[in-house]
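fwd from M.: "can u put these together and see what the complex looks like"

so here's what she sent:
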Amino acid sequence: MLTRRSLLKGTLFSGSALFADFAGIAWTSSLRPRQKDPFANGKLLGLLGTLDFVNESPVPLSIPQGSELDGRLYSDLSTLEPQDPITPTGKFYIRTRASQLLPDPASWQVKLGGIVDRPMNLGIESLRKAAKPMGAHLMECAGNVRLAHFGLLSVGDWAGVPLAEILDKAKAKSPAARVLVSGFDQYAEVSRTSVPGASWVFSREQLDKAGAFLATELNGQPLTKDHGAPVRLVVPGWYGCACIKWVNEITLVGEVVESTSQMREYAARTQQKGVPLLAKDFQPAVIEQAATPIRIEKWNVAGKIKYRVVGIAWGGSQPVKMLQIRFNPEENYVPVDNFHQVTNDPWTFWTHDWSPNTPGTYAIRLSVKEPAVQARRLDSGYYVRSVEITEI
Ligand SMILES: Nc1nc2c(c(=O)[nH]1)N[C@H]1C(S)=C(S)[C@@H](COP(=O)(O)O)O[C@H]1N2
Ligand SMILES: [Mo]
């Protein structure tokens, strides 16, 4: 189905004015095209619309649905633009909405204890006062799926307090002590989809390496209830399941402790070997290099129909040089024309111009072929999306 977009505002079909708007789009400058842009020939240009991906369910996007553990909001990735890389708070994905039983945030305390020299209660006001800008970080649910248009994925601009600072104050009795972070998780309703009880056990090294922080603000405002108000954990580069919301307890525990129910629920989705019974046997729940198309634009270029695949790349721990794309089943991988990854977090926008030879259904698949880069989810075909081309 073809839907008109307002991407380029009123100037869409007005000849040269379009060229100015088009060139102004950040991907042509910030992503350093490898070749001359074949669409930007100054002649008759027009965006005709975007194609919907096929085999994805018609779920509502950008609006919260359901409540408590069954509450969700799927972000709409199809409208993303590189010049607005931050997801507005009202459109930031939600996995688990705030409990109806959530205690009053004004008197919130985080109980910091366990095997420490100085146990303490951190009041929400002191955390808010100590909050500093923590930058833009991507969050993705390990259970992000095609049926939800991969909408359990968003980027926030966070403020908070580095967890390392807080842990240093409490003085763990042993450097090998692990850190159990727990959040409020009692609900009025019985869930159809999830086990209540969110907590995760980290090593101190994992938290420090990731730059984990207790967030009190998202996009310049106090956290919203659904995103974990008054305070949540953010572990940059890790899946959202480790980013505990409504944090009320941080406990230093021994080196050998059991994994939590949340860790076990997410073991497969965070690519663990089986379901480890001990927290120390969990690998860091990091997001490996990933990429997916977010929309297919249909253009009229000097009277000819052309397509442009627009996508994102995220995850991983080192920028990759080349992203490759394949249009199944008849083609080989080719380099994405307009891809330049400078930083893994939060994300990188890319585009690829495409002129299919025949009408038909195409499965679009991305790949990174660099020996040092692990991309198990990407390689498994997890982020493949399909479109039906009727006009060439
Ligand atoms: N207390 C608590 N924290 C939680 C959860 C939860 O159910 N309860 N869900 C986790 C999961 S699975 C994800 S993906 C992220 C989602 O954060 P968001 O809803 O702000 O996007 O929160 C995590 N933190
Ligand atoms: Mo999640």
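replying to her w this: The longest helix spans residues 16-24.
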